[in-house]
Amino acid sequence: MLALFEYAPLILFFIIYKTVDIFWATGVLIAGSILQIAYYYFKQGKVETKHWVMFGLAVGLGSLTILFQDDQFIKWKATLVYAGFAMTLIVSRYVFKRNLMQKIFSGIIGNVLEENQKFEVPTALWDKLNTFWIFVLASIAVVNIYVAYNFSLDFWVNFKVFGLTGVTFVCLIITMVSLFKYFPDEE
Which of 49, 57, 141, 162 has the most CB atoms within 10 Å of its CB? Predict the structure, then answer.
């Protein structure tokens, strides 16, 4: 259910784009992002940095899209988000010597394990996964802007909603499969 909530602004964007136009869809994306931030703040008492980044880009680039009636601004949102996440992984790993993929996936998997179960993965695998995600996120950033400028608006919207989401989902599956053999055995 939480995953559906995470994608709610994107889903609403797609529906409104298909029924009205890109400018109304962008307005709905901004409104959905505002509601999402409000929900996190009032429900959880805090808003994660990634949500603030997505919100800032949606409001900033979305406002420019509506103000200038130019869809070029909103097309940059996905590229900036994915490039920003790739840069965050690079800086975290090679400047601060922290592997964010290890932190993220250990937290996710730790939430489903029982207290006495251990989840230990070799550092080399975490480094490979971090590099894999850097490559994936940077590639998505480049491909998004390529599609935005070389294909129709309709094709780009479909690519953004289904293509980028699909690629991300497949990469999550690849990550989980590579971690699977380190899951604790069921007793």
Answer: 141
In whole angstroms, give the CA distance from residue 114 to residue 120. Answer: 14
**How far apart, in whole angstroms, are the C-alpha atoms of residue 149 and residue 12?**
23
